[in-house]
Recover the amino acids of this structure.
């Protein structure tokens, strides 16, 4: 006797491993690379110095900007003193009002010049700091594309190196938009509920990746070239088994069907067109054929989503000689089978 049960709607899809974080190490000033401080393929920490660019010109620029600032500050001081002296003289009409106005304007211009030179000094200091090229993120750094003695520029096409964070790591899974649409329609029906998307992986050599991941999000657009939607899952990767660019197979449940029936595979037969049929115990202990929908299996059972009702007794043994309306003697499926001469019918086990 079958009863509805909760069955996960599991899918297996192709996926590709992508880094959790990736950053290109690029110079922000031009100069000759003096030193490289890291070992290729090693783990580097955020803020750690990776390259040293020749700082000579930038130190000189800082010194020049500092001198210009001091000169502007001296000019400002003189202009303020002159304006302060002219103020009482202008009130006594010892000097003209125009001379006082000019002195005040000169002091303001000197103040603006100080601000400009201070900004120039800050820019020079920033450029000097940029001669140390730090790691923008923590991760594993690849090979260095530039050696000591190479000339680098701020606008060059190639990065100095690339850093990738591999733990945790992402797997981008591709699902067709048609399957995604069918899933959303299924979720709108009674008996279908969303599942917690715990993902398992199968590696390129066919082995299972031990740790499980979780789906982070689903893209909201369909790729026009492939007609697929990308789902991104996150996995722990402490041993760096998963590497960027690796192809994997992802298996996870997208929904749970709470009105499905599990029928042993021996109780389901298929015709030449692939249609699934089961025999159930009908009125008067007669065999009744039912056309069902059974599109997938779980373990040793077919998952039947249509064609059965609660309490149906499905015949799972002794089905070789069954025909519609034949007399049967149903017994529980777990009862030991007794071989006896048939009397006007056939003995079958029903579940």
């Amino acid at each position: 006797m079958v009863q509805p049960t909760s069955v996960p709607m599991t899918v297996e899809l192709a996926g590709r491993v992508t880094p959790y974080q990736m950053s290109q190490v690029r110079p922000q000033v031009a100069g000759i690379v003096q030193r490289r401080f890291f070992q290729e393929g090693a783990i580097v920490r955020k803020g750690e110095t990776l390259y040293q660019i020749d700082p000579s010109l930038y130190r000189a620029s800082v010194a020049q900007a500092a001198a210009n600032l001091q000169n502007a500050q001296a000019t400002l001081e003189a202009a303020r003193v002159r304006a302060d002296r002219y103020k009482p003289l202008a009130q006594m009409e010892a000097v003209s009002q125009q001379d006082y106005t000019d002195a005040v304007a000169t002091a303001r211009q000197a103040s603006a010049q100080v601000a400009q030179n201070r900004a120039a000094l800050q820019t020079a200091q920033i450029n000097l700091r940029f001669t140390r090229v730090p790691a923008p993120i923590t991760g594993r750094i690849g090979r260095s594309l530039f050696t000591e003695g190479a000339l680098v520029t701020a606008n060059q096409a190639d990065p100095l190196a690339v850093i990738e964070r591999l733990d945790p790591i992402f797997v981008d899974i591709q699902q067709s938009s048609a399957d995604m649409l069918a899933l959303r329609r299924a979720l709108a029906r009674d008996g279908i509920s969303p599942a917690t998307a715990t993902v398992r992986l199968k590696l390129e050599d066919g082995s299972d990746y031990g740790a499980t991941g979780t789906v982070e999000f689903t893209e909201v657009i369909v790729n026009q070239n492939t007609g697929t939607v990308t789902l991104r899952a996150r996995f722990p990767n402490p041993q760096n088994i998963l590497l960027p660019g690796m192809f994997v197979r992802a298996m996870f449940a997208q929904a749970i069907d709470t009105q499905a029936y599990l029928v042993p595979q021996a109780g389901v037969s298929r015709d030449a067109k692939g249609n699934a049929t089961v025999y159930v115990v009908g009125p008067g202990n007669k065999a009744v054929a039912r056309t069902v929908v059974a599109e997938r299996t779980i373990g040793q059972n077919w998952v039947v989503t249509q064609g059965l009702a609660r309490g149906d007794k499905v015949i799972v043994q002794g089905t070789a000689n069954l025909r519609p309306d034949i007399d049967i003697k149903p017994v529980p499926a777990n009862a030991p089978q007794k071989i006896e001469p048939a009397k006007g019918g056939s003995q079958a086990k029903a579940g």
Q: What stands out?
A: Helices lie at 56-91, 97-129, 177-187. The first strand starts at residue 5 and ends at 25.
